[in-house]
Amino acid sequence: MDDSNAFSVMLLGSDMPVIPTLCPAGVMASSAPATAVRCKRRPWKCNREWLMSNITEEERQKLLERNISVPKVWKPTMKMTHAKERMIRTALRKVRNVASAQRHRETQRTRVTMLETQLSQRDDTIRELVARISQLESVIMTA
């Protein structure tokens, strides 16, 4: 490894040093292989004010069940620690994920029910057609 550059890293099985660099979110550094350098994580998509003002009453109740208190009215002058914000975001993501999973299970149940009714209707149609074919074959055989 090159001693003059304290930040260079050697990849296993490679004799070329890789120099970690900071890069824009979602873009890999062009001077290094994709597996060697990772960019900093993108910031949250919504800011604190938007997050706090868009929590529904149902979500607020679920958060209270988890012993996480969220103010009913959020003012930009209110202070919140980064740890508290991270805890609220994590719990809110879990609450929303549970609700999403419940909706998905419900739509899956309705889809399965719909497919079962279509299948039974097709089975009935097939039975009717088979009976009609056998009736016509018996008419042809007797004629």
Can you give a write-up of this model?
This protein has 143 residues and is mainly alpha-helical. Helix content is 53%, strand content 3%. It contains three helices and two strands, in the order ββααα. It has helices spanning 48-53, 57-65, 82-142; strands at 9-10, 17-18. A two-stranded antiparallel ribbon has the order 1-2. The protein is rod-shaped, with a radius of gyration of 31 Å. The N and C termini lie far apart (97 Å). The relative contact order is 0.06. The model is unreliable at 4-11 (pLDDT under 50).
Quick description:
This protein has 143 residues and is mainly alpha-helical. Helix content is 53%, strand content 3%.
Question: Residue ranges: pLDDT <50 for 5 or more in a row?
Answer: 4-11
Class from helix and strand fractions: mainly alpha
Order of strands in the sheet with the most strands? 1-2
Question: Any idea what the shape is?
Answer: rod-shaped
Strand content: under 5%
Secondary structure tally, helices: 3
